[in-house]
Amino acid sequence: MKKPNRRDFLASAGLVSAAALTAAAAQGQTPGAPAGNKKFKISLAAWSLHRSWRSTWFNLDLPMIARQRFGIDGVEFVNSFFDLPRSDYLKELKKRAEDYGVTLVLIMVDGEGDMSHEDKREREQAVVNHRKWIDIAHFLGCHGIRANAGYTTVGTVDERVQRCADSFSKLMEYADTAGMNVMIENHGGYSSIPEKLLTVMKKVNNPHFGTLPDWGNFPPEVDRYEAIRQMMPYAKAVSAKCYDFKPDGSHPAFDIERMLKVVLDAGYHGFIGIEYEGEANSEPEGVMYCKRILEKYQM
Fold it and tell me: Where are the beta strands (DSSP E) in the chain?
């Protein structure tokens, strides 16, 4: 079988015709734009397509893919997918988002240092490293970035939590100047222990600092529904992590509808980002399975 290339991927992406684009523009809408008031909007997390990144698409393609392939209103970036985040590149990315009527929601930042590292110099460098992504997110019109609590195993959990809180307090001094949000996701280690992550929230105590509850990323002993419930008061974004779907659309890993109810019961009305991480379905199939479930509860 021929290996798919970028042209094949885009050609099979369900692109609307020029006539359809013109008609939508005449009505003051973009294809797939939400009609009426909805409880939340849906965004596409770039990680949903990580298996096909570079072989079939690039970061600049994401606004078009979100809108025309999936009919989705927003994009959540991954920092490692940025090809060349210079001014001209970022301007083009922003222009494409405007052209397709897509909101650039946030940037998920990985690989920029450990915010709970035992070495103070390492922590300070991690804070500095994250600043450029706050700048990039601000330029693109994102509301913030997602960072990680840190993965060091040196020291007690409480010591790591304190170091993490100190680092994020310093980062927030920078983020506050631009009114940008910074979020921590439950992304392994002590960040996936709800009470420890909430301790970080309370220690930093900043209105622009919050959580990004991810429906996955919990160890087996943690009740994921209760954990998300605890994280929601601090939530500034929500990640609809999903895994393999069966042909009937069911999701054996956990109950997506129950998880969504937890989010909505908390009064959340922001973007919910689809982050497909299964393997049994193709990436577009996984995204669409999750989208169909979410759409049932938007109105």
Answer: 41-45, 74-78, 103-108, 144-147, 181-185, 209-212, 238-242, 271-276
- Taking the whole predicted model, whether its pTM rises above 0.90 is answered as no
What's the pLDDT tens digit per position in 140-183?
999 999 999 999 999 999 999 999 999 999 999 999 999 999 99
Q: What is the DSSP letter of 65?
A: I
3-state secondary structure string, 67-110?
HHHCCCCEEEEEHHHCCCCCHHHHHHHHHHHHHCCCEEEEEECC
Q: What is the CATH architecture assignment of 38-295? A: Alpha-Beta Barrel (3.20)
| Token representation of residue 127 | 């804070």
Structure tokens at 40: 């939340």
DSSP 29-54: --TT---S--S-EEEEEGGGGGGGBT
Instruction: Spell out where 150-259 has E strands.
Output: 181-185, 209-212, 238-242
Domain ranges of the chain: 38-295
pLDDT tens profile 66-97: 999 999 999 999 999 999 899 999 999 999 99
Report yes or no: 151 and 188 within 8 Å, Cβ to Cβ: yes
The contacts found for 128-134 with CB under 8 angstroms, 24 or more apart, are 130/171, 130/182, 131/171, 131/174, 133/79, 133/107, 133/109, 134/171, 134/174, 134/175, 134/178, 134/180, 134/182
* Two structure tokens written together for 90: 């970022």
Amino acid 168 reads F
The count of C-alpha atoms lying within 13 angstroms of the C-alpha of 138, restricted to the half-sphere facing its C-beta, is 15
Neighbours of 182 (CB within 10 A): 27
